[in-house]
Structures are given as C-alpha cells and as structure tokens.
Amino acid sequence: MIPRKQTGNQTKTYITDPLKLLKRLNLTPQQMFFSPEAVQEFRFKVPEAYVDNIQPGNPNDPLLLQIFPVQQELKSVPGYVKDPLAETDSLFQPGLLQKYDGRALLLVTPGCAINCRYCFRRHYPYGDNTHLWDQIKQNIQKIKLDSSINEVILSGGDPLSLSDIRLAELFTMLDSISHLKRLRIHSRFPVVEPKRISNKFLNILAKSRLQIIMVLHINHAREIGSDSQASIEKLCHQQVILLNQSVLLKGVNDNVETLTQLSETLIKHHIIPYYLHMLDRVQGSAHFEVSDNNAVKIHQQLRAALPGYMLPRLVREVAGEKSKLPVYGK
Ligand code: SF4
Q1: Which protein residue has the closest C-alpha to ligand 1 atom 3?
Q2: Residue nearest to atom 6 of ligand 1 (CA)
Q3: Do the beta carbons of residue 214 and residue 240 sit within 8 Å?
Q4: Tens of pLDDT along 111-170?
C-alpha cells in the first residue's frame, strides 16, 4: 500500500490508498464523502511528509481537503472542462508550450509528488511516455533555434519527479544554450516531499550558469513543516529565488486570517508571495470554487492587513490571453 520508490540516493514514501490514509487519520469514508470513482478519474497519491502535517480526526483539515477524492468530483458542472486553459492548442510540439513571449515551457514529466484534486492538468493528455526523453531533447533543440527565448520553465507534472541524473543532463543541455538567461522550476516537492532537495540536486543547481527561480506551490501555512523549512533554507543558501503561488480554494484558504498567516510564514522563510490564483475551471474541481465577489472581498481585506511586498496578486489565467489577468483593478 505504501510503495517505496528509489530515485537516485533517496527513498520516497507515498500513500496511494485513500482508505489506509483515513484509517491512519481516524476518519471514516462516510465522514469524507469518499469516492472510489473519483480515484479512477484521477489517481490518489500523497507523500508521508505531507500526511504528517494533517490533523488526525479532522474531516475539514485544509491539507486533507486538497488531496482527498470526494463524491463532488463526479458532478458535472457547466463551464468546468477537461482542458480549461486550452493548453493542447498552445502546443507547437508535444511537451513544449509557448504561451508567452520570450519564455518556453517544457513539460518534462507527468509525475508529481502529490496529486492535488483541483489540479488544472488532472486530465492533461500526457500520452505515452516511452519516448518522453527523446521528445524533451527535440524540444530543447527547438529552443536552441529560437534566440527570442531567454527563459525556460520546467513544468509537468512536477520536474523534480525526474531523477538527479536526468535533471543533471537536462541542466547541461540548457546551460549550453547561450541565449538562455533563466531557468524557472515549478515544484511542490520542497514542501510536500522535502527530502527531495538532496545534496546531489543542490550540486546541480550550484553548477548551472543560469539564474534559478523556483516557484513553489503552497496553499496553507501548515504545509510548511520543520523538514520543509530545512529544504527551503538549503535552496536559499544556493541563491535560488523563491516565489510562491497559491490557489484560492473554498474550505482550504478562503479567508483573510489563513492567507495572512500564509504570507507571514512565507516571508519568514524568504519566499515571496507572488500569485493568488483563482481556480482553473477543470472538470471535477467545482466544489473548490470561490466566487469573484468573495475573492475580491478577501483580497481587499488582505491588502489592508499586509505590507505591499507580502500581498500576492489576485489573478486568473484565461485561455488564449498573453498573460495572467488581474481579477480586479489593474
Ligand atoms: S503538484 Fe502541481 S501539477 Fe502536480 S497535481 Fe499538484 S497542482 Fe497539479
């Protein structure tokens, strides 16, 4: 039930059976409105390190709500679709997305440390991965031929799902492209599976000539446990610029107290609260939606409570738009 998977020099431990998780947390399937069908739609997976921060006996725990498969996911809601950002239309080659000028996004793996139930790529057609590495290499060749690209964004899935050997290879290829200046990595690993920030990985970062920006994804201050703090500190020592993006989620962080606490905790650990995203309307996630009115109200309260540098921008992504759009104001 808890598979141990060896990657590089690390042992990762995950829970993949929702019932075993409930047993451990002293909760029943009825209390959680558990749906095995929802697991068929989108696999259940959570690292032990994340589970350690969930409060046992609390069916409304904000960390648990993010990952637990529930009956509401099966409800069909108008406006909720499989590809809410029309990403398959932005592909100019499988695994390479160019939505914004100067930047290219490489999808390097379908794997994640954790499966978040609201994920906008929960239905993404990653396809057959047999030739994924060949495809990545071809995409890097494309980037090499386009000198207008100065930043590569590694995404997925979660790029840190790749082994250190693969990442080292990837970094070497990208380092050799002279027009690239920055490498951005979107990852939830430093927080949900902090041991992934291994010395080997830190060495890969240290060797790169590129400026490294890591965009973390933390929705609630309680996700940052003591192991996560240690990993974040190591990344800071490596001169990695740390930003955070959160998703505004009903029942998880849709109030000013929780978001204030989150910003306070992020800043304490040298992470800039960058974006607060509206939910992408992906099929199966409607129960997480916060209305625009409520979102604006919460954000205005947050604006009054926090200094400007601690206030994340309230934005949404709209398919076909050149950049993220502010939900209100400019
Ligand atoms: S870690 Fe990111 S990509 Fe993976 S399931 Fe969660 S939101 Fe989606």
Answers
A1: 157
A2: 116
A3: yes
A4: 999 999 999 888 776 665 667 888 899 999 999 999 999 999 998 889 999 999 999 999
